[in-house]
Write a structure and sequence with these properties.
Helix content is 30%, strand content 27%. It has three helices and nine strands, in the order αββββαβββββα. Strands 3, 4, 6, 8 and 9 form a five-stranded antiparallel sheet that branches. Strands 1-2-7-5 form a four-stranded antiparallel sheet, with no helix packed on it. Strand 8 and strand 9 form a beta hairpin.
Length: 160
């Protein structure tokens, strides 16, 4: 009978350990900032302004720290940084919602008339070191991969 108690204790300890690890993984995963980005407008625009929107898929609030465009020359240009430059002038943002996404399905949208047509958009939340990228249809897989690798390699200095 002593042998049975030892095996039962061992199995119980293994089940408890696996359950604890599983719950910890779920908790850590649930605290990540999850959102989608689209480099398209949610409504038609006759002036051909460039819009992007971000939709929260998290149950907790998300604070966006940076957002912007991916240009055809494979560079990332921050809308927040561009808007502080003196020559931004007539390109002022036509519409911009608050950058804090309070709940699931909350939407952030911004846009303006731009000189260069972007091939995609990016956004980075307060808890992320690297931005999440999204590309327009028609961008080659090679170019997408090249930009993803460049952003991964640059880390937090992705705008350099």
């Amino acid at each position: 009978m002593e042998d049975f108690k030892g095996w039962a204790t061992l199995v119980g300890a293994l089940v408890a350990g696996c359950t604890g690890l599983f719950n910890t993984a779920i908790q850590v995963r649930g605290k990540r900032d999850v959102f989608t980005i689209s480099p398209y407008s949610t409504f038609p625009d006759p002036d051909q302004r460039e819009f992007m929107h971000v939709v929260s898929l998290s149950d907790h609030p998300i604070q966006l720290m940076d957002w912007g465009w991916i240009d055809d020359d494979e560079s990332l240009s921050s809308i927040r940084r561009e808007s502080c430059e003196p020559d931004f002038g007539s390109q002022r943002s036509d519409f911009q919602s608050p950058s804090k996404l309070e709940s699931r399905n909350a939407v952030f949208q911004t846009g303006y008339l731009r000189k260069k047509t972007p091939i995609g958009a990016y956004a980075c939340s307060a808890t992320q070191r690297k931005p999440k990228l999204s590309f327009k249809h028609g961008v080659s897989a090679f170019k997408k991969t090249k930009i993803h690798i460049r952003v991964w390699w640059m880390g937090a200095a992705y705008l350099s």
